[in-house]
Amino acid sequence: xxxLIIEDNKKLxxxxxxxxxxxxxxxxxxxxxxxGYDMAVTETYDAIILDVGLPGHDGLTLSRTLxxxxxxxxxxxxxxxxxxxxxxDGLDSGADDxxxxxxxxxxxxxxxxxxxxxxKQQPELVLQVGPLTLDPSSHIVKRSxxxxxxxxxxxxxxxxxxxxxxxxxxxxxxxxxxWDIDTDPFTNxxxxxxxxxxxxxxxxxxxxxxxxxxxxxxxxxxxE
Length: 224
Description:
By secondary structure, this protein is α/β, with parallel strands linked by helices. It has helices spanning about 10-20, 35-40, 60-70, 85-90, 105-120, 150-160, 170-180, 190-205; strands at about 1-5, 25-30, 45-50, 75-80, 95-100, 125-130, 130-135, 140-145, 145-150, 210-215, 220. The chain folds into 2 domains: about 1-120, 3-Layer(aba) Sandwich (Rossmann fold); about 125-220, Arc Repressor Mutant, subunit A.
């Protein structure tokens, strides 16, 4: 899952980025409304965390512009303003949810999950491919009943594969959804991490069929 934070408080933005990355999100940061708008319309995100008070374009204007341009990426608006009118203005601008600073990080996580779940119009069910299961809420991964320990990036990669079972995913698609904007698309990062995940999901279960498959010249697929 890939998120965009548009927040002019650099310390807060980088702190959120670091915390969200430990939760297996890929996170990009924009420090003003103009840069945020450019990134929101040129990259693909699962959700946008948007501050109201921004230089360049303020959050309300940016949200309204994205909606006018038919951009339906879920928007969670952050603000220090807690008056009812401010909340109404935020939601009327096209934001999907509203969170007042200071906020609890766990509440932010829950709201992000809810926004993404609603956008996909499906409950957050346990993902399953054959004997492999992944619980998005607890981040617990098991194969044949045995729990598998993954790093945050390994988990994010496996989750994206499992949300697209039996579909060939190119390296570009994997970079766009699992890594941030600074990742060089010409590196072998994807192949290296596929190797890490494959070692834990397939090779560690000798005698069971492989689930992660390389499709030569195209990308990778997960399925029985």
